[in-house]
Inverse folding.
């Protein structure tokens, strides 16, 4: 076990044994202090992993610090809105993934069950709700969610708002089904109204200069992310411990911050150098097969990715890292945020997702696509058949892998392993 | 003294050998304005998922709304009898159903009506725009323009149907044993699926029969309820989503469960509120538009009618999909108070996120007002009647 793993393991055990908000805050204050964070950063074997951990810890530490107004946010919101309003975002769905990584799923799910959340519902939302009820998350001042790609978030956020007694500070961003001039205007008006209301409640004026600056930073982050994604089209080997499925927090929650810019700039630098070295070494990559991963990954300890690695399979790209939005206009902040939201390929018809996926499959020269069919995600799983049939037209094999991202007890490890092995055999037979 | 009169089931009053030439447009969610479909010259018919999902199982995952699956089965089996389908952006499941129909029944024209989740001025305006798009879709199907007169007439027809169903619902409250819960829900099913004019005619005939058979004093008297054999029975409110299960309602008849109020998708949420939003708008404090409608010009009248429909649809008793769940809780609590409800039976289709995630909140609120509740999760077209009967009986015994 590496030093990094030992540190992580030690922290997991400590948090599991002291399951309180204050204790989590204490731990975050210790590991989030500059010298410790630098020392901790030095233990990582790759720059991308190091910066990912640093910016994530910084962001979570800030949300637990009690020094800033906190806002719960659902995954697909444009987080530039939060940073422009100087409210610190906290993403319960993403943090549910962290609780899974910490091995707390059994406790959060049990708590949710005791409050009548049925097991038929998405585990991310049940875990997040359980964590809220166990008082593990920071106390929010606002809750903002969108109906984009998920019905469950808006309901659980509302229940949270009731728990904290802040229903007046709950905002549902109603994302229209189609992207057109009228729907952009409808959505932009909602962002503007929410911004005005939050500013008023914080006794501040709407700071347009801040919006402008945030959107500039967002564009900068977007450019680096695009560059990283371009490099990945050529990459067949990655620096140790890189897993693109880990970047969901910075990719969404930190859009519009310097941290996101620093992170993606460093990933780019590392990948560029790494790729050049591989080219110099003339590493044989012919045996490596490239996969496109749809939806998220299991967050509990598992060997699925090492199984793929051992068989010369890499994740050439992940759907969640796709830069789906155009460059934003800093002069028109609300319209820009509306355009960003409406550009998401998970919004509207599944055709949008299919077009994005087939584009990714071609760009990253993928040999196969794996769609992790997370328990309870009606949005993603309901489109599985269409996605599979659409990729078939391009002769791209697709595996719809049933499982649960958080609840190990609801995923059959043996079945997933067998299905992965079978899928690899199908692809191997083509070579 | 109560005269024990057996009320015949509705089926005895339905016109036989109905032959309607009116072409049908399918719909699924009560946020679909039937007025628009009727005004375009079609007959709206709800896709109720009558067929058990077989082929549909191959298109959707195992943990998916069973009603949506059965609806897909209906569409795959009977798409040729429809001229088109109106879907709504109600939930993740419905969006995927629309995708599947577009992909696998490409010859069946379909349209998705985007229904906002918030209730405010910009949401109404957005909904008006979307209704206009629905009009364009329907006009393109039969190359017939919807005129003001068509809309005015269709609003009248829909309001007449809603008012008649409301009257029937009132009868159910005071003479449920004679009317029958299963019979009541079968009438609702006919209301949503049969040709509207024929149905209204039949229902009026039926309501007249009830009026004539049951002495007025008894029918209208509060004593009728007090002195009937229902005396002492707990009053139950049903809350849920689309619960269209003959066998389930038969169980309720069998255990003599007195339903005094409901909030489900195929009953009150379908017929409550008529399209006359002037007073509704006033009550709900909706701001008038920036450019007020000047009645007189044709376009203005047309736009006002569309706005009326948009407001009626958005401000009818809301589905759990809507944003403000306190409004939903308020509606339920008002019903509990007005009907002296003793207990709530919450029934949801499995895997319905919007409804299932409402229950934790509802249960919490009901506990505060000391109303016990029973949670029933069912599977469309596949209910376990014996188990449900035992649970309902046990619930009725404890309250």
């Amino acid at each position: 076990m590496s030093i990094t793993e030992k540190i992580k393991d030690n922290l997991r055990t400590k948090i599991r044994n002291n399951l309180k908000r204050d204790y989590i805050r204490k731990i975050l204050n210790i590991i989030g202090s500059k010298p410790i964070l630098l020392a901790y950063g030095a233990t990582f074997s790759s720059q991308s992993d190091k910066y990912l951990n640093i910016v994530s810890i910084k962001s979570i530490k800030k949300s637990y610090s009690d020094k800033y107004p906190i806002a719960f946010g659902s995954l697909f919101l444009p987080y530039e809105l939060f940073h422009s309003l100087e409210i610190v975002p906290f993403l319960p769905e993403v943090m549910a993934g962290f609780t899974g990584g910490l091995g707390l799923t059994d406790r959060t799910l049990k708590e949710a069950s005791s409050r009548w959340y049925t097991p038929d519902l998405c585990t991310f939302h049940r875990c997040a709700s359980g964590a809220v009820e166990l008082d593990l998350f920071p106390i929010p001042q606002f809750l903002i969610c969108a109906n984009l790609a998920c019905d469950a978030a808006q309901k659980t956020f509302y229940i949270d708002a009731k728990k904290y007694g802040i229903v007046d500070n709950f905002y549902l961003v109603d994302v229209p089904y189609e992207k057109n001039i009228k729907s952009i205007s409808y959505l932009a008006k909602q962002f503007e109204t929410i911004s005005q209301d939050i500013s008023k409640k914080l006794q501040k004026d709407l700071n347009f200069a801040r919006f402008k600056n945030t959107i500039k930073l967002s564009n900068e982050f977007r450019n680096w992310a695009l560059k990283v994604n371009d490099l990945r089209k050529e990459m067949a080997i990655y620096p140790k411990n890189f897993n693109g499925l880990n970047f969901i927090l910075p990719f969404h929650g930190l859009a519009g911050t310097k941290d996101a810019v620093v992170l993606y700039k460093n990933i780019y630098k590392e990948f560029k150098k790494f790729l050049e070295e591989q080219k110099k070494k003339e590493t044989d990559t012919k045996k490596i097969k490239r996969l496109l991963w749809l939806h998220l990954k299991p967050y509990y300890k598992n060997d699925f990715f090492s199984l793929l690695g051992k068989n010369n399979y890499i994740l050439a790209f992940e759907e969640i890292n796709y830069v789906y939005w155009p460059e934003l206009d800093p002069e028109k902040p609300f319209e820009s945020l509306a355009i960003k939201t409406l550009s998401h390929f998970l919004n509207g018809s599944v055709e949008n997702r299919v077009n994005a996926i087939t584009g990714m499959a071609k760009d990253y020269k993928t040999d196969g696509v794996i769609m992790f069919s997370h328990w309870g995600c009606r949005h993603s799983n309901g489109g599985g058949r269409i996605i599979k049939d659409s990729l078939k037209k391009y002769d791209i094999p697709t595996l719809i892998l049933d499982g649960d991202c958080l609840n190990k007890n609801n995923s059959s490890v043996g079945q997933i392993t067998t299905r992965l092995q079978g899928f690899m055999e199908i692809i191997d037979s083509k070579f | 003294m109560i005269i024990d009169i057996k009320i015949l089931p509705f089926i005895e009053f339905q016109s036989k050998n109905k032959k309607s030439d009116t072409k049908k447009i399918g719909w699924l969610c009560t946020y679909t304005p039937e007025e628009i479909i009727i005004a375009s010259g079609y007959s709206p018919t709800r896709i109720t998922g009558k067929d058990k999902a077989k082929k549909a199982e191959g298109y959707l995952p195992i943990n998916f709304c069973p009603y949506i699956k059965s609806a897909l089965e209906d569409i795959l089996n009977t798409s040729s009898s429809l001229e088109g389908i109106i879907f709504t952006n109600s939930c993740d499941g419905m969006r995927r159903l629309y995708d599947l129909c577009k992909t696998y029944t490409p010859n069946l024209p379909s349209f998705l009506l985007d229904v906002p989740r918030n209730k405010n001025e910009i949401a109404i305006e957005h909904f008006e725009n979307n209704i206009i798009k629905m009009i364009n879709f329907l006009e393109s199907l039969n190359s017939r323009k919807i005129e003001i007169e068509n809309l005015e007439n269709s609003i009248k027809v829909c309001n007449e149907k809603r008012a008649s169903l409301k009257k029937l619902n009132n009868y159910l409250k005071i003479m449920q044993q004679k009317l029958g819960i299963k019979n009541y829900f079968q009438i609702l099913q006919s209301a949503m699926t049969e040709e509207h004019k024929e149905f209204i005619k039949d229902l009026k005939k039926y309501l007249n029969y009830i009026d004539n058979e049951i002495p007025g004093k008894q029918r209208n008297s509060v004593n009728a309820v007090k002195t009937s054999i229902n005396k002492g029975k707990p009053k139950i409110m049903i809350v849920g989503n689309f619960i269209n299960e003959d066998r389930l309602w038969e169980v309720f008849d069998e255990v003599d469960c007195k339903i005094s109020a409901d909030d489900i998708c195929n009953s009150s949420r379908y017929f409550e509120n008529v399209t006359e939003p002037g007073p509704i708008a006033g009550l709900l404090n909706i701001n008038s538009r920036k450019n007020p409608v000047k009645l007189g010009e044709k376009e203005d009248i047309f736009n006002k009618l569309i706005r009326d429909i948009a407001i009626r649809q958005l401000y009818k008793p809301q589905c759990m999909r809507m944003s403000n769940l306190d409004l939903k809780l308020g509606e339920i609590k008002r019903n509990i108070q007005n009907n002296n409800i003793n207990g709530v039976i919450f029934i949801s289709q499995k895997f319905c996120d919007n409804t299932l995630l409402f229950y934790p909140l509802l249960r919490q609120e009901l506990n505060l007002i000391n109303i016990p509740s029973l949670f029933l999760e069912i599977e469309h077209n596949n209910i376990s009647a014996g188990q449900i009967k035992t649970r309902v009986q046990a619930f009725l015994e404890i309250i």
Confidence is low (pLDDT under 50) at residues 222-227, 277-290 of chain B. Residues 23 and 42 of chain B are 5 Å apart (CA to CA).
